[in-house]
Structures are given as C-alpha cells and as structure tokens.
Protein 1
Amino acid sequence: MNAPALLGGSAAAIAAAVRSRTTSASELVEASLARIAATDGVVNAFTDRLEERARQRAAELDGQLAARDGATAGLPLLGVPFAVKNLFDVAGLVTRAGSRIERERPPARRDGPLVARLEEAGAVLVGALNMDEYAYGFTTENSHDGPTRNPHDPTRSAGGSSGGSAAAVAAGQVPLALGSDTNGSIRVPASLCGVFGLKPTYGRLPRNGTYPFVASLDHLGPFARSAEDLALAYDALQGHDSRDPGCVARPIEATAPTLVQRVDNLRVAVLGGWFEEQADAQARSAVSRVASALDARDTVTLPQVERARAAAFLITQAEGSTLHLPDLRRRAADFEPLSRDRFLAGALLPAAWLVQAQRLRRWFARRAAELLREFDLLIAPATPCVALPLGTEWLQLDRQRLPARPSLGLLTQPISFIGLPVCSVPVWGCHPKLPIGVQLIAAPWREDLVLRVAHHLQNQGIARAPVAAIPAAWAAEGAAGPRPGTPAAGTPP
C-alpha cells in the first residue's frame, strides 16, 4: 500500500508499514504535507506547518531503520504524522492559543511534554492547528485565523474549541491530533467531524507546556479515526509530570492490550433526563443504536444536571477571566469579540457564587460516583445536534430556542465538570449526510473501559470514522487558495 493510501487508514497500520519498510516515514510525511496542501484551503485546520522539522525527524527515523540499530523497535507510532492544537508548546513556534495577543510573545523554547511523548513514540509533528481564541468556544470561528470548516460539509462548523484538531483528522491530513477539553472541546468537535476523541480523567495527563484556560477543568487528549489509534496515542501520552500540580502520580496503565477483552459482561446504562431532553431526534437515535449494540436496557438520571452546567459556566468564566484580566484592562479591543465579553462578565462575578459552584461540584461528583458503582459505563449524546452552518446564532431544540454556540456544550459540560473519562464515538446514519457523537462515560481512571467499548462498537460497524470526501467544487477552489473571507493558515490578521 502506498503512502497516501496508508495516510487515509490507521496509525497502527502506518507504524507497521514503516517498521516492515514497506514504506518510509519520509514518504508518509510527504503524503501528509501534500494532503494538507490540497485540502486546507477548504478546511483551514492548520495555522502553522512545520515542513522542515517534519522532514528532518522522518529522515532520522528512516536512518535508524536503515542502520537496523534497534532504536525504532519499541516505537508504537513509528512514522505517524500528527498535529497539535496551537495552545501546545512547540519548540521555535509561538504558542498563539488562537489569539492575536499571544502571537506577539517569544516562541516556545521546547516542546510541551505531550508533544515530546508522541515523538518519543515515533510520531512526527507536521503542524499546529486552529482553535477558538483561548479555547473559549465551541465552533472554531476564529476571527484572527478564519473559521475551520467541517470536512464533511464545508458550509458547517467543525465544532470547538479543538476544531482544527478534529477537522485535520477527519480530512485525512493526519491520523492523530492533540486537543484540549475544558467543557467539551474534544468531544464536541469529535462529534461534529465524525472522529474518535478521548477526554481522559482529570489529572491523568500533564498540562504543562500548554496555554491554560481553566486550571480546575482543563484536560488534554487525542483525536483519531479508530479506537485502537486513540488507545496507542493515549498510552504514549501517559506518565506523571510534577511540573503540573494537577497531574496525579499514577503508574502507566496500558489500554491498547485490553481492547480485545469482552464487553458483554459490562453493566451499561443510558443517561436520561437532561441528556435526553437537550438532544434532538438524531442525537437520541445515535444513543439508541449504541445502547442496542451494548444491550443497555436501563435508563438512569443524574440529579441537578442543569445546575451543574450552570456551575461549570461560573467556574469557567471566573478562572478564565482572572488569567486574562491584565490584557482585558489594557487591550480589550484585541480579543476575539465572542470571548472578550464572557471574560469581562467573569471578572465581575461575586465570590459567593463561586463558592456555591464548587460546593455543587463536590455534591454532583458524589452523585455520579454512586451511579458508577452501580454501572460500569454510562452513555449519552455528545452534542444536541449535528454540525450547524457556520455563523448560526440560534439553535431550535424541540420547543426551546437557545444560543447556538454555548449550547453545543449542553451535554459535555456536566461530565468534564467532575473530571470523568469519556470517549466520543462517531455514529452515522442518523442524519442523511453527517455524523454525530455518543459519549461513553466511566469512573475515574477507567479509560480502558471507554476505549474497549469504543473498539467493540467500531468492530460492530456502529461507530466509524471515514476520511471526508471533500466536495469536488470546494476542493478545486481550495487548491487555489482559501474562500473569500477566510485567511490562509498562518496568515496574521
């Protein structure tokens, strides 16, 4: 199989092909760079492309293989191209975090630990990806770098804030990408772009070497087009780092070897109540398909979910605005308007509200823990609907008219609020042309369960993540440059 065909497949297959010398890491990098050049005028996933670095790293790996010195024997992601949300530190690159202000800072001196760990596993970094400014959004409609477009329908949103990460994987530009999830920023774009996304347990992966958003809610994790690739990436990312005070000192617990274990002995329930009421018919249909495949016959409820989401909003606004308060005072006009107003509102929140929000958080976590002692896995929609057209301001959900952008996190915020591990799996066939995600939720530190079930659903054909067939008219126009009003990747405002 040639490099472009391998690029559209799995990371596991790429690593096997490079290891057997059927192809080379250099050929895979060239295929990735060519795919980016051919499609990113449409998708606008990349803000920075690292051609020289990627070619040099791939040549090093190929040289090690040619020398047969054994240095590549234990590299599970050998030759796999990957990209990262532009809030990850990359040596020599400015960590822009989707903003105008940060791009004036000096470049990062070294790679963040998760970037370094993927490269230590043999993967090759090819670039940095678009996002909502300071990770505060669910649509990646970035006014500085242009919107990222959904590869399955370029008129629609890729989701956010890790929209560039999900879109790059869905478009076949890279098999793996890294993103962040504070209130749903991995699961929302994974759902809308039709890829697999993992939000690990809070504290599982170190966050130093990234631009923070909300320290008590921030998670980092991978995107992929298969559950196996997600597990391989997650296993490579694991490990304690004392430089992140929120990172828990746990041993590495490999998940890839457990993917083949049985799932028919798991106790699985559907989350009802809020998670059913705040989802349209297509989202509910996706959950029904997953529930049927897992023989999940129980429907359970979490109490006070609406209040939990409200508390998550308060904590997000307060912590986020505190971080940016100096720049808000000096340079408010340089912020993305969609994030600036929310940061300003957060700066005015009474302390008593935050105390109450944290109390509710502890109470809600205990209620979820009680439920997860009764069941091994909970399932719920990842988004209330499929991807919305870019620029959509209002979402009609049954009889409710809701603000569209924040409402994409209706079903993810209550879960990240209490730090549970979640895998979003892509389901097709509920909408005529678009995917939608389902959340697989487990108790803390049970990433093995959500990945095992995701793998089972993929093997059963319930979940799948095909490379997007970008419409020919869009691809032709994109090859000549971005559509009007969409800055080219990496173009300053």
Protein 2
Amino acid sequence: MKVDGRCHCGQITYEAEIDPQRVAICHCTDCQMLTGSVYRVSVQAPREKFSLLSGQPKVYVKTADSGTKRAHSFCPDCGTPIYSSAVQDPPTYSLRVGCLRQRAELRPLRQNWCDSALPWAINLGDVPRYNRQ
C-alpha cells in the first residue's frame, strides 16, 4: 500500500510503500515516553520503499534495556515523531501511523510489550465520548 505523511508543521514530508498487515501497537515504557502518550502505533517500511521528500529530521538515539540503539527521527520545528530506525544502514523505517494521511485505513493487528501497558489504556469502550471538545 502506498502511503504519504508529514509532520504537523509540514516541513517534513515523505512517502512509502508498506504492508498494512504489519501495523502494530507498542506498549513499552520507552514508546510511552517518546510519544507522550500511552502507546505507539507504527508500521514498517523497507528502506528501498521509503522516500524523504522534504525537510531534514532531527535524530535522537536511544539505548534500549537490551543495549540496542535506535534512531528516533522527529521534526526539529514542531517536534512531531516521524519514524525510528537502526542507527546504521537501516533495513526498515518504523513509520508513526499518526503522521500518515491514510491512518484511518491502518488498523493495528497486533500489540507488543503488553506487560507494560497501562491497564486503563486497553479498553476505552466505557469512557464517555464527545464529537468535539
């Protein structure tokens, strides 16, 4: 599936081809911190199917508990997380689904690191809903 995305301010734009069957939620505490939310939703794009069209992301390298380093790329102006990847010669880019124009079509099909999930974040069906604030 062809997708395109951008940061909130529009400085960074990109396009990619992804497999919509690979959309996943991550509940790890690093993803909670790096998104400022309760989980991260992402989809993998192979390096050869990803094109940065405009802008240059700023990169923050984090070290996981395992010792693995990951490069997290975000807009230097608005701070929108764009993707993460291996630090050197990445085979794939983990695109942040919230930045993709096609996000409504990209339903997650699996959840990882559920041991770290916040209990209230798993099922929000009983939380009152409003169409606008």
Protein 3
Amino acid sequence: MMDVTDTLTLPVSLDLAAATPLKQEILSRRGRKIRLDGTNVARVGVPCLQVLMAARQAWADDKIEWVSENFSVEFVAALNELGIGPERIGLEKEPAK
C-alpha cells in the first residue's frame, strides 16, 4: 500500500447543504492519511463542524495521520464563536490571511 496523503480542499460554504457531501468525501478517504485545506472556507455551519469533529476523532482512533491547515480567518472565527477549540478538528497552524 502506498503511503500517500490524500488532500481534500474544502468548499467556500460549509453550510447545511454541504454536510452530507462533506461526510461522503471524508469517508471515501477512510483508512488513508488526509490533509484538509480550508483556505477557501468563508461560511461554516454546525453540521459541517460536527462532520469534521467526528471524522477527526475517527482518524485519531484509527491512528492515521490527519492534517488540517490553511483554514480561513472566517472558519477559525466560527470555531471561536461556538466555543470549539481548533484542536477538535486537528487545526494546529495559524489561519490563512
């Protein structure tokens, strides 16, 4: 098996309509290293945050690498407004400018 990280660039809008497609996109990568790029995210809803948090936990349980990076200022602000620490989705780097 190749040791390749799969990159998923998140859409501009992570609203309710995006939750099911996001879940499907992430689940299709289960068992592989994943890198989420949140550079373009401008809107975030709770359902998509729930998908991301659950997926982050699944990757941790499976002991598979999960990297969240380049998340927009808007995304990080949404996390803060909801009282969700960025570590819940594996975000360790500063937001994109």
